[in-house]
Amino acid sequence: RPVSSARGTKCSETTDKVRHVKREEELLQKIARLEQQLSEERERNAALERTLAAEREAALDQRFAIVENNLKLLELKESLESEQEKSAKLLRNILPERVIGELRTVGSSKPELFEHVTVLFSDIVDFTGGSARLAPEEVLFELSDIFTGFDHIFANHGCERIKTIGDAYLCVSGLPEAAPGHCGNILGGACEAIGFLRERNRNHPHEWRMRFGVHTGRVVGGIVGIEKYIYDIFGDTVNTAARMEQLSEPMCINVSEEVRKAAPPNCRFLERPPCEVKGKGVMRMYFLDQTRTQW
Asked: Are 175 and 114 in contact (CB under 8 A)?
């Protein structure tokens, strides 16, 4: 029995050692698997970080591209607005503001009858002879300088320049917006224009004198042309104003009977002998007395 017992004990110890070794091998395998999993996880994390870094860099590049595109769009917008303002300024030089608005909103502007309008015509006395002594660029400079001054003066008096025809200047008051004081506006602007011309003659090597004619009544205004817009006015009132200018004297404002009646109370007139007017017959006309009229 003692021998049998010893053998059993030894067998049991051997079994325990085998189990212990086997357990250690299993633990080592688990550790190896965990280390493998950890290594794979680290590799995945590294790959994910690389992907995220690439995406961040791509997103940053995209943001830079968006900012750059926005800056280009802003520059383009500013450039476009600048060009639009230049175009609008050019349009305002040839068309009334309201007509420009109609063209923008509906694409057209219909002719319109204006019942109460005062028209002024003026031209330079002996312009052909005076301009013959000047170079072409000097002639253009002289006209531009004089008419630019007129533009400012008449605009300040509520008048609208319609056009220039060579050395002739045509403006109105009472269109496209009604102006109750249209007659006084034109007469006041004409007086100031003559004062401007006199002052210019005193300080300029080339002296110019102009005739002025004024009539009041109804006119039709509208755009002439399709590809090249020109705003013009038509009617007997326009023709009569031109006749008043033709029958005027240098640096004088010749007006019709209708203008004398429509003029404000502060205006004083010098009656002229009745005169035959082409297409109108005999008409009474007057010079505006510039020395006695106060503005």
From this structure: yes
For 107-135, where are the alpha helices, taking DSSP H only?
127-132
33-88 pLDDT per residue, tens? 888 888 888 888 988 888 989 998 889 888 888 998 898 888 888 888 888 777 77
What whole-number distance in Å separates Cα of residue 95 and Cα of residue 228?
11
pLDDT bracket for residue 4 (50, 70, 90): low
DSSP string, 48-92: HHHHHHHHHHHHHHHHHHHHHHHHHHHHHHHHHHHHHHHHHHHHH
DSSP, collapsed to helix, strand or coil, labels residue 267 as coil
Q: Which residues pair with 217 in a beta bridge?
A: 117
Answer whether 173's CB lies under 8 Å from 217's CB: no
Q: Tell me the pTM.
A: 0.70
- Taking the C-alpha atoms of residue 276 and residue 17, their distance in angstroms, rounded to an integer, is 146
User: Hey, is 203 helix, strand or coil?
Assistant: coil
Q: What DSSP character marks residue 96?
A: -
Q: What is the largest CA-CA distance in the chain?
A: 172
Distance, CA of 122 to CA of 124 (rounded, Å): 7
**Dihedral sign from CA coordinates of 240, 242, 248, 251:** positive
pLDDT at position 8: 65
Distance CA 40, CA 37 (A): 5
Integer CA distances (angstroms), 70 to 74, 85, 130, 246, 285, in order: 6, 22, 57, 61, 66
Query: What is the Cα–Cα distance from 9 to 249, expressed in whole angstroms?
Result: 151
Cα–Cα separations (whole angstroms), residue 90 to 86, 96, 223, 226: 6, 11, 15, 17
Length of the chain measured in residues: 295
Predicted local confidence at residue 225, as pLDDT: 72
